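Dear H.,

Thanks for agreeing to be a second pair of eyes. The structure we're designing against is below in token form, covering all 96 positions.
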């Protein structure tokens, strides 16, 4: 799951870098990579909080445990999408 999310993040980063390269405008990197990175990070935090709140309620139910694991996996995958994009935006921000 993490590899799949990381590859999706790299592909989005490459698309935004191509737009930046061909236009020479750094705002494309901010808007595409930064936007996707922050949205994925916020959704990851949402799924993480959701998995924590399910952990506290009704520990003996199989459905809750299954939903908890699905939320945890979605959280990790979305975080792996966000990391390469946010790192690229941070590097561009530091360099420019």
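And this is the sequence the design step returned. I haven't edited it by hand at all.
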């Amino acid at each position: 799951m993490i590899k799949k999310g990381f590859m999706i993040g790299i592909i989005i980063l490459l698309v935004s870098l191509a737009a930046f390269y061909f236009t020479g405008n750094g705002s494309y990197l901010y808007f595409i990579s930064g936007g996707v990175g922050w949205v994925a990070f916020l959704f990851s935090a949402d799924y993480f909080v959701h998995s924590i709140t399910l952990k506290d309620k009704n520990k003996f139910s199989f459905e809750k445990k299954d939903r908890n694991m699905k939320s945890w996996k979605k959280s990790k995958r979305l975080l792996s999408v966000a990391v390469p994009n946010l790192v690229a935006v941070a590097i561009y921000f530091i360099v420019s």
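Two observations from my side: The helical segments are 2-23, 27-56, 62-95. The radius of gyration is 16 Å.

Warmly,
E.
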